[in-house]
Specification:
Blueprint lengths: L2 H10 L16 H5 L16 H14 L20 H7 L2 H4 L11 H18 L3 E3 L5 H18 L6 E7 L6 H7 L3 E5 L9 H7 L8 E8 L11 H10 L3 E5 L12 H4 L3 E3 L20 E3 L11 E5 L2 E5 L16 H37 L15 E4 L1 H7 L3 H10 L6 E2 L8 E4 L7 H20 L1 H5 L12 H6 L6
Parallel strand pairs: 2-3, 2-4, 4-5, 5-6
Antiparallel strand pairs: 1-7, 6-7, 8-9, 10-12, 11-12
């Protein structure tokens, strides 16, 4: 790990903090709030010693599930280990204490890191230009679709290019992102092999009864069934022949990174999930990061500001007449970019390739073990994840996928993704990632085997789970509306 490089970039970003602080007069609190709003006596707060406070919050943290404490097999989410060196890099003073309004001369280090990260992502994705401004995968999709709209507007076809085609095996946020951009969303079915039905796609690419044309096709490859789209090049050919663009959702890039590049598949736009593929923390609402990379012909449309270099100096350029404009305050979640940069530099080319190979190996190993308990929705080689179908099991026992997911909590495992994709009845989607050991995978499989036995012998035990957590089974709809953070 080139720690000296990171520290040097951090120092370059710290210069602005060494400027003298302005002399700002401090007003009395009464004048700021109003004398009538001040307390006449101290609030009745309990006096608690430090050990009691520390123990309270440590106990609360131990009740949480996290990738640091448990196996987190959420399908399509890539909840992998976050190396602690990433956190050390993000905590370097020159990165952590930057202010977004600093002069560009004082932030050359972070601009250099970001420019280098853009270059690395372009290399990994087989693309030509990149922006780091997407604050999450869904915002990356939003940016990509803004680029689609801008491209067709530039060609004078915005009025008739109104449709976005989304395969039913694509990532779940795609339809929402397309609708948010004002497009008409149309579903493309999968074939019996779990991949895009090319005949259905070709038909969908034709003008509809109103003469409306497709603007783009959004693909996830491998898809949410864990299948690699073997005909992806043909998909690209059909899409481009129809005058549409091909968008690649990078949610599952962890399965092909170093093996295949979306740009070589024929994709025009893609987003990365730094908080998935490149090991930065996510969950609980953030922080995420969804950089967007494009082929050269779309580079003029990227959002501003764009990092440009002139005579060795980096600057943020806003002079981009074809740009889709600003999409984020300042420049996105920059410390997530620092973590991803550290991860890529730590792993190197061979390390990233090993990540992919181990992720695919783990998924196939676990799939074959679990196939002895529940049917695999689409048998055969999978990539990073696979989908089980508990349809027949539910009919035989009355125990649902939801019940099994809850019972897994009693065994110390976070549940996989359930009831997605919606094309599989009683679906359970499992992604082990590359960071789990064989022992962990075996223990998870054994837990599911035990639960299957329980479901046949004592279904009520499973249907009323969990039994060992601080709270039992909740009314999910009510809990979402009436959040309670204590018990």
């Amino acid at each position: 790990m080139p720690e000296t490089l990171l520290k040097e970039l951090s120092k370059q970003g710290r210069v602005g903090l060494l400027l003298p602080e302005p002399d700002i007069p401090v007003k009395p609190i009464g004048k700021l709030l109003g004398e009538n709003n001040l307390r006449s006596e101290p609030p009745p707060l309990p006096e608690v010693d430090q050990p009691t406070v520390v123990r309270h919050f440590v106990r609360l943290s131990q009740l949480n599930y996290s990738v640091d404490t448990h196996f987190y097999p959420l399908g399509s989410c890539t909840m992998k280990h976050n190396p602690k060196v990433n956190e050390e890099a993000a905590r370097l003073n020159g990165f952590a204490f930057l202010h977004p309004l600093q002069d560009e001369e004082t932030v050359q280090g972070i601009l250099r890191l970001m420019k280098e990260l853009e270059r690395m992502l372009c290399e990994i994705g087989g693309m030509d230009a990149c922006t780091l401004q997407g604050a999450a995968g869904a915002q990356g999709e939003f940016i990509g679709l803004l680029l689609v709209r801008a491209w067709h507007k530039h060609k004078g076809e915005e009025e008739k290019r109104t449709r976005i085609l989304v395969p039913d095996s694509a990532h779940g946020t795609n339809p929402a992102s397309a609708a948010r951009c004002g497009f008409i969303v149309e579903n493309v079915p999968s074939g019996s092999d779990g991949c895009i039905d090319l005949i259905a796609l070709e038909k969908a690419l034709m003008p509809n009864e109103k003469g409306q044309l497709p603007a783009a096709v959004m693909v996830t490859n491998p898809n949410t069934l864990g299948k690699f789209e073997r005909e992806i090049v043909k998909v690209a050919e059909l899409t481009h022949k129809a005058g549409a663009l091909l968008y690649y959702d990078g949610a599952n890039l962890n399965a092909v990174m170093g093996k295949a590049k979306p740009g070589h598949m024929g994709c025009d736009i893609m987003h990365f999930n730094l908080h998935k593929t490149f090991s930065t923390p996510h969950g609980g609402g953030g922080p995420g990061s969804g950089p967007v990379a494009v082929k050269a012909f779309l580079e003029p449309f990227l959002p501003v500001p764009v990092i440009e270099e002139n005579e060795g100096k980096l600057r943020l350029s806003y002079d981009r007449p074809l740009s889709v404009g600003r999409v984020h305050s300042f420049y996105g979640n920059v410390l997530v970019a620092v973590r991803a940069y550290t991860y890529i530099m730590s792993m190197g080319k061979e390390g990233l390739l090993k990540v992919t190979e181990d992720a695919v190996l783990n998924a196939n190993y676990l799939m074959h073990k679990l196939a002895q308990i529940f049917p695999v929705a689409f048998p055969g080689l999978c990539k990073h994840e696979f989908v089980l179908s508990l349809r027949q099991f539910k009919r035989e026992t009355g125990v649902r996928t939801w019940d099994i997911a809850k019972r897994l909590l009693d065994y110390g495992f976070y549940a996989p993704t359930v009831y997605f994709p919606i094309t599989v009845e009683e679906a359970m989607m499992v992604e082990p990632t590359e960071t789990e050991s064989k022992e962990t995978l075996n223990a998870f499989a054994k837990a599911l085997e035990n639960i299957a036995i329980e479901a046949r012998d004592n279904p009520e035990l499973v249907q009323t789970a969990p039994h060992k957590t601080p709270v039992g089974r909740l009314d999910e709809a009510k809990a979402a509306r009436e959040l309670k953070v204590r018990w």
